[in-house]
Request: fold
Amino acid sequence: MLDRSKVLALIPARQGSKGLPGKNIRPLGGRPLLAWPIAAARGSRHVDRIIISTDSPEFAAIAVEAGAEAPFLRPAALAGDTASSVDVILHALDHLEATGDRYDYVLLLEPTSPLTESADVDSALEMLAASRETADAIVGVSPLVSAHPAFAVARAPSGLIRPHAAPDFGALPRRQDIEPLYALDGSLYVSAVASVRARRTFYHERTLSYVTPRWKSFEVDDLLDFICIEAVLANRELLAAHD
Reply:
């Protein structure tokens, strides 16, 4: 319970990934990928209920074994490549509200961001709850370092390069002088339910940032990402000590 508010954790996990078939249940660190966000939600002090939204009975059974609930299967219309996340969220909220189960906040945790931890969930929820006069949502972001646009280059048809944001290479800034920028990293999304219903997005002028360290920002899209995240997991304590 968060300030007498109810929090729903929603784990979206459709079948049919084209980039990496079976991605959401592929083993990572000894457990199916979708079990990682479920574990993060289960360890939270503030999450009241954990639901999986999936079109797969197999995925639903795996999620239930990991500690989530699967009170429905997602309809086919919401399981294709073009289905929007907000429609998936609203479908779940509508289903639960039809049974009399209403929530103040919805937390979206995607299996493709398996490095989000319970402490991140609680910190983000507490930040949002403490900032409701100015904010209705909070999303994960991570610092842009090597990918900072100040160091981007354009490539001519000849193969020659030029700075994208500076007149010449001599005008490139030092790393310590550049304006800090952040990338939306998908590690977590939280919104007041009333806001996500009205705005149909987590991103707007009343959205807070929850800054995650770069090692937590890895997302699973292909096999290379799995290999990288396995390496991160093997060195998680060392990385956390250097945050």
Notes: The two ends are 29 Å apart (CA to CA). The longest helix spans residues 85-98. DSSP finds seven helices and ten strands in the chain. The helical segments are 35-42, 57-66, 85-98, 118-130, 193-199, 223-234, 236-241.
